[in-house]
TrEMBL record, chain A:
GO terms for biological process: cellular respiration. This is 2-oxoglutarate synthase. SUPFAM superfamilies: Thiamin diphosphate-binding fold (THDP-binding) (SSF52518). It comes from Candidatus Viridilinea mediisalina. Keywords: Oxidoreductase. The lineage of its organism: Bacteria, Bacillati, Chloroflexota, Chloroflexia, Chloroflexales. CDD domains: TPP_OGFOR. InterPro entries: 2-oxoacid:Fd_oxidoreductase (IPR051457), THDP-binding (IPR029061), TPP_enzyme_TPP-bd (IPR011766). One of its GO terms (molecular function) is oxidoreductase activity, acting on the aldehyde or oxo group of donors, iron-sulfur protein as acceptor. It comes from the Bacteria. Residues 60-206 form the Thiamine pyrophosphate enzyme TPP-binding domain.
Automatic annotation (TrEMBL), chain B:
One of its GO terms (molecular function) is metal ion binding. Pfam families: Fer4_7. Residues 5-34, 41-71 form the 4Fe-4S ferredoxin-type domain. Keywords: Iron, Iron-sulfur, Metal-binding. It comes from the Bacteria. SUPFAM superfamilies: 4Fe-4S ferredoxins. It comes from Candidatus Viridilinea mediisalina. This is 4Fe-4S ferredoxin-type domain-containing protein.
Length: 286, 78
């Protein structure tokens, strides 16, 4: 696995990609958002992308602070509207690589409609949607992804609404690249984010990130170790899931049935908005 | 000949979340008794011989505070 990454160190990585004066990050102890930033930077390093050709866009929330730490052009936009701004950037200059950091409350809750239509349009961008099951920055209100029974400040007796599966939504709208990862293992998300950035068309990478402060503390997962362990125990690799469902015993199948599937859920080719637009321009030219 | 590794911790950036300590596959790290300038107990490499240089702590650190370096190769006698 060591051949995957170029022989560079974190110290060299941060000199190239980070705004040193912004560090250290504002995130709480045990938050996985720093890891998401770390993996994205390693993915950019793997692809050897020129930082002047990358634009980071984000909305509002803990996850949306990430664009401010990268030493590249970026926009910190209004709540839920990151994808609309990103679509505008991409339409104005299709040569730029657009990476969107958004959260579950920002991208799937308040900006849910923008998410639908940006996927439908198949804009060529990479969306790293950080899912921590809660509105963390505003004080722990329940989000569209909060599991049934999950405690939050707005659901003090437990959540009764069914949660939303963001990857299933993207699959239904035929996004060409859909993946879901936890932050527990570094290598698979790094590889996946690199694939997403290289993909022509909409790439959605849902990162399951532990929030020990707003979610973990209220839901019996107090402390860094407990909540990170929960993610390790309640997820199963897609390949393992399929393998066990086909060849495993009944007990093994029963054990993994309720678990979240992580992995690359779809990787296909689909003509992006820019390609179709360029064709149309060519067609109607006088 | 045995390759040994050293772990450099940037104490200005380390928040003391202990993720490196929790995840170390060989339990080579420990949390120091002393305080860093930020007022937390930083991690440190306790057992140099155990560290196999997998760089998991470096990749998992949310604050880019850890760097794993390769030490000069030391010739073992006998």
């Amino acid at each position: 696995m060591s051949t995957l990454l170029k022989p560079k160190t974190a110290a060299e990585l941060r000199d190239v990609y980070l705004r040193q004066e912004m560090m250290p990050t504002i995130f709480c102890d045990g938050c996985g958002l720093g890891n998401v930033l770390n993996y994205t930077l390693w993915a950019l390093d793997e692809l050897q992308v020129d930082l002047d050709q990358v634009v980071f866009v984000s909305g509002i929330g803990c996850s949306s602070r990430l664009s401010g730490y990268v030493n590249a052009d970026g926009m910190h936009t209004t709540h839920g509207r990151a994808l609309s701004f990103a679509s505008g950037i991409k339409a104005a200059n299709p040569n730029l690589k657009v990476i969107v950091f958004t959260g579950d409350g920002d991208g799937a809750g308040i900006g849910g409609n923008h998410l639908l239509h940006t996927i439908r349009r198949n804009m060529d961008m990479t969306v790293i949607l950080v899912n921590n099951y809660i509105y963390g920055m505003t004080g722990g209100q329940s989000a569209p992804t909060t599991p049934i029974g999950g405690l939050s400040t707005t659901t003090p007796y437990g959540n009764v609404e069914y949660p939303m599966d963001i990857c299933a939504l993207a699959l239904a709208l035929e996004a060409p690249y859909v993946a879901r990862w936890t932050v527990n293992q570094p290598y698979p998300p790094i590889k996946s984010i690199a694939q997403g950035i290289a993909k022509r068309g909409f790439a959605l990478i849902e990162m399951l990130v532990p929030c020990p402060t707003a979610y973990g503390g209220r839901n019996g997962l107090k402390g860094v170790e407990a909540i990170w362990q929960w993610y390790r125990e309640n997820t199963v690799l897609l390949d393992d899931f399929e393998h066990i469902m086909e060849f495993g015993t009944l007990e093994e199948q029963e054990e993994i049935k309720h678990k979240l599937k992580v992995g690359v859920l779809r990787d296909t080719e689909r003509e992006s908005f820019e390609e179709r637009w360029a064709k149309l321009v060519e067609q109607v030219k006088l | 000949m045995e390759q040994t590794y050293n772990i450099l911790i940037d104490e200005r950036w380390c928040k003391g979340c202990k993720l490196c300590y929790i995840h170390c596959p060989t339990q080579a790290l420990r949390i120091a008794e002393r305080f860093s300038p930020r007022g937390i107990h930083p991690p440190e490499l306790a057992l140099v011989a155990r560290c196999n240089g997998c760089r998991l702590c470096e990749l998992l650190c949310p604050d880019f505070a850890i760097t794993v370096t390769e030490e000069e190769e030391v010739a073992l006698h006998g």
